[in-house]
Amino acid sequence: xxxxxxxxxxxxxxxxxxxxxxxYTHSEVPGATSAREAPAALRIAAYNTSLYSDExxxxxxxxxxxDDDVRKIAAVLQQVRxxxxxxxxxxxxxxxxxxxxxxxxxxxxxxxxxxxxLRYPYRYIAPVNTGVQSGLDLDGNGTIGGEGRERGNxxxxxxxxxxxxGMLLLSRYPIDADTARTFQLLRWSAMPEARRPHHPDGRPxxxxxxxxxxxxxxxxxxxxxxxxxxxxxxxxxxxxTPPAFDGPEQRNVARNHDEIRLWTEYLSxxxxxxxxxDAGRCGGLEAxxxxxxxxxxxxxxxxxxxxxxAIGGLxxxxxxxxxxxxxxxxxxxAAEADGGANLQHRGAHAHDTGSFGPRVGNLRxxxxxxxxxxxxxxAGVFWPRSDAPHADIVDGTDHRLVWVDVTQ
Length: 408
What we know:
alpha+beta, Deoxyribonuclease I, Chain A, five-stranded mixed sheet, 11 strands, 22% helix, globular
């Protein structure tokens, strides 16, 4: 074979080999997600579970025993399987033991009526104001503290022991606990144009010396960063006081309004040098941050007690995504069956997130409000009709789980 022919054959072989070999970019690697493919949705939820006790340590005892309501709550979470969920009314235990037992004994074991075991590698808990005695006469009855349920009125947030009605954030994705901002200690009087409660005759309900010390948050307000697959999402978590259980001064109505308004201020432009977290850092959320507001905000946009201006303003805030309200068929059925106050309600029954009996009626109190910059894929309230599968697990609490699927 001549040298010329040999060179020609080698060149031809190289060309054939090149035709059979392809260099992949990341998006082209078999099995990798293409930039053109729809990214996986992130399911984010809020759920008031009523997992509290009037006695310190009572929740832990309850979780270690057999409890049908706890089983139902765990089953709901296993059915919906949120990636991130804020649980309201979960008593705060500083060493995390209550959360440990709830996760390991209930969520991580398949429950009747639920789905597969559900594991959350990451969680966030922090102290709350409920049950923490103020040492002040906050309810104006002339005494400090007191006996029985009256004792809770003089706590920074109503509660019979420190940590009652706390919050628990669970996540499949890492939580940056070191960067979390909490507003447990923020004073109500620091808020510009705060709605200070007054007697009907115009006198301030709280003396100046008390008003200047009052904390705004009945539990706490948290800004917790979660490192989701598409980037950081700020979870803005809270549980404002119910706008009820007060007198003609409507101090809880005013507090609920301003607790909700705190998030409106946090999202709005300005220096906000009054809006200082518990570590002393002042100011609101960065303008380019993506977030989701989560929690039982204890205010329906149109029905029930309370001042609806703050919740309406938060839903309509320019940084909050405009989207169809989460709904369920079970809520429609329940409102029609319960009657009572539901017959006078103006809001759509399908949007209700809690069942509070015929006197109060069913209301939309629980919220998942994603920010502009995220994309809504789907949403709902876990409230099946009575003749649907899993209807028998919804009544572990008087609230219903709300969820929204988003992409980043």
